[in-house]
Amino acid sequence: MDAHAPTATRPTLLAKRAEPCVVAMLALAAVALSSGCHLHQTPSGGPGKLSQLLHPHRNPVYLENPLFVPECDREFVWQQLVDSVDNYFKIAREERMQVIGNVVTRGEIATYPVAAATLLEPWRGDAVGFMSRLTGTLQTQRKQATVFVTPITGGYQVQVQVLVQQEDVDRPEGATVGGSSLRHDGTIARLNQDRDQDALPVTLGWIDVGHDVQLEQKILADIRDRLNVAWQNAPAVTGP
């Protein structure tokens, strides 16, 4: 008998390697079933935990945007704003508040566009909630933030805007249908009709999708905590 032939008492190397995988899969299945039961439970007076996981900010209390900041040192306010925005975006331009005559001009902080965070980048803080990361994974999107600081009587108004844009391409990636047809929509893009069909799509531009309200609120909350803004100085309204 071949010494290396599998027998009923000595499993093969493949079986030995498969045993830990099977055990791990069974353990994961048990955890998933247990978690699923808890996720679908609906506590009294509130939505289910699964709904809270997918939509963590469905019924939040929103900060006003712009946020009122009581009067304090102008340089301190600016440094805190820059430090807060820098945690999420790379700053491209700073226009500080300046005193011209008897008027204090409005300040502005602009950032570079950054690709939206995906499910594979849990360490990035520029996405709030599962759905935001899922959208960034399935679609090619980018985000860009702008912060305005307007001096008013008794303090400042800090407005945060996070614009979301989606890539506009000439065709879906890997698509071959219509690849040899000419475009007649007035686009200024000059496409090479003889290019390889396997080449990557050409970016025609970016389409405005809207504002990332959840990220705006996250940045505003960080600014509020940094400047120690009391709730009564930053009235809250119920979000949509």
Features:
elongated, two-stranded antiparallel ribbon, alpha+beta, 28% helix, 11 strands, 240 residues
SSE topology:
Layout: H1 13-39, H2 49-54, E1 61-63, E2 67-70, H3 74-85, E3 91-95, E4 99-100, E5 103-104, E6 107-111, E7 114-115, H4 130-138, E8 141-152, E9 155-169, E10 203-211, H5 213-226, E11 236-238
Antiparallel strand pairs: 1-11, 2-9, 3-6, 4-5, 6-8, 7-8, 8-9, 9-10
Question: Tally the helices: what do you get?
Answer: 5
Give the total of domains.
2
Average pLDDT for all residues: 73
Shape: elongated
The largest sheet is: 7 strands, antiparallel
- The strand count comes to 11
- Output the helix-strand order: HHEEHEEEEEHEEEHE
* Residue share in helix: 25-40%
Strand pairing plus helix content: what structural class? alpha+beta
> What is the straight-line distance between the termini?
76 Å
The value of Rg in angstroms is 27 Å
Strand content: 25-35%
Structural features, described:
Strand 4 and strand 5 form a beta hairpin. Helix content is 28%, strand content 26%. The N and C termini lie far apart (76 Å). Strands 2, 3, 6, 7, 8, 9 and 10 form a seven-stranded antiparallel β-sheet that branches. A two-stranded antiparallel ribbon has the order 1-11. A two-stranded antiparallel ribbon has the order 4-5. The radius of gyration is 27 Å and the shape is elongated. 16% of the residues are buried. It has two domains: 16-52, no CATH class; 60-174 and 200-232, no CATH class. The chain has helices at 13-39, 49-54, 74-85, 130-138, 213-226; strands at 61-63, 67-70, 91-95, 99-100, 103-104, 107-111, 114-115, 141-152, 155-169, 203-211, 236-238.
